[in-house]
Write a structure and sequence with these properties.
Number of helices: 11
Number of domains: 3
Order of helices and strands: HHHHHHHEEHHHH
Strand order of the largest sheet: 1-2
Helix content: 55-70%
Length: 351
């Protein structure tokens, strides 16, 4: 057998090996591409599922579940139980807390994280009211230690994913709130109280009023508005740190319109439950002030803001244009609820 013949066969064998290697490499590339496509499809489906807004719950049934059916009604137990349930919803809903996710599909979602932020802001506000007002008989009285710890935990950064994670801090806040609740309903403890007074309710409603007013302005700015500067109106002697123009162009950036919309949805969802809880715990105060109907009207306005959005995206039509403007519709409900809260606070403030 000649050397040239052997050389030719070696070259052919080498070419065959290269062809096999190229074919295998191409197969692996195709397999990886198909796997990536399947992953993206599954991630999209999971993302759609995770983006579903949690259902509303009955604050009375929730309080009964937390306390046990044999426990007599205790003033403040409904509001406290509702805070716990709303905070638990943030952590236990499908996908859990998405605001601090650093991997897909949570990383790609923005509607639900903004909804979560709206809910979280309301949890923080009412936790602050619990610590500073609802649980204290007067300004000079001591604050409840568990409520103080709970408020600080709920005010933790909602985008921290480790060391510590947001979820662990909020779980601690829930536990501290639950410890207060257990002392509240226990006859063996007298150092946990909930004072259902009109001035305490007014304290919280002032915060709600400013939150809704801010959201209403941001929602309305989806189409852009020239607004007269009224910062110093009502007081001829009023001063401010630096001068500002007499007219200001206010417009929410296009990429932030849906963020503000879903933050407002989350805010309204949480407020509906907190206001219903207040209706139970402050029932005598509201009846005495003839303000019960006013509170229920606020709840109805906010419930209207939770209607199903059938559009696949939040539209930003120009007010009276061809396309709808979901932000302006939401702003309408928020503004009416805010105006009703102002009226309710006025009723409660009267003797």
């Amino acid at each position: 057998m000649s050397a040239s013949f052997i050389t030719q066969w070696r070259l052919k064998f080498r070419d065959w090996q290269e062809d096999v290697a190229e074919g295998a490499g191409s197969g692996w590339v195709k397999f990886a591409a198909w796997m990536a496509l399947v992953y993206l499809l599954l991630a999209m489906l999971v993302g759609i599922y995770w983006s579903q807004t949690p259902q509303a719950f009955s604050v009375r049934e929730n309080a009964t579940l937390k306390l046990g059916s044999s426990t007599d009604y205790i003033t403040g137990s409904t509001t406290t139980s509702t805070i716990i349930r709303v905070a638990e919803t943030l952590l236990d809903k499908p996908g859990g807390l998405l605001s601090n996710d650093i991997t897909p599909p949570g990383l790609w979602l923005d509607n639900m994280p903004n909804w979560e932020y709206g809910v979280l802001i309301q949890v923080r506000d009412i936790s602050k009211a619990m610590r500073e007002s609802f649980s204290r008989s007067q300004s000079q009285s001591l604050e409840d230690k568990d409520l103080g710890k709970a408020e600080s935990r709920f005010n933790f950064d909602n985008q921290s994913w480790a060391m510590p994670a947001s979820e662990s801090e909020y779980r601690d806040g829930i536990q501290y709130t639950n410890r207060y609740l257990q002392r509240l309903i226990s006859t063996a403890h007298t150092n946990a109280q909930f004072y259902a007074r009109s001035d305490n309710l007014i304290y919280w409603l002032r915060t709600v009023e400013t939150r809704l007013g801010n959201l209403s302005q941001r929602l309305s700015a989806s189409v852009g508005q020239r607004r007269i500067n009224t910062d110093l109106s009502g007081d001829a002697q009023a001063l401010q740190s630096t001068p500002s123009p007499s007219e200001v162009l206010v417009k929410t950036p296009w990429g932030k319109i849906d963020d503000v919309f879903y933050e407002a949805r989350g805010t309204s969802w949480a407020l509906i439950h907190f206001l219903k809880a207040v209706e139970v715990d402050f029932s005598d105060v509201l009846k005495r002030k003839n303000a019960l109907v006013s509170l229920r009207q606020i709840i109805r306005e906010l419930e209207s803001s939770q209607a199903t959005v059938y559009s696949p995206m939040i539209l930003n039509g120009s007010g009276f244009g061809v396309l709808a403007n979901h932000s302006l519709v939401m702003a309408s409900y928020i503004s009416r609820a805010n105006a009703a809260i102002i009226d309710l606070r006025s009723l409660l403030d009267q003797g």
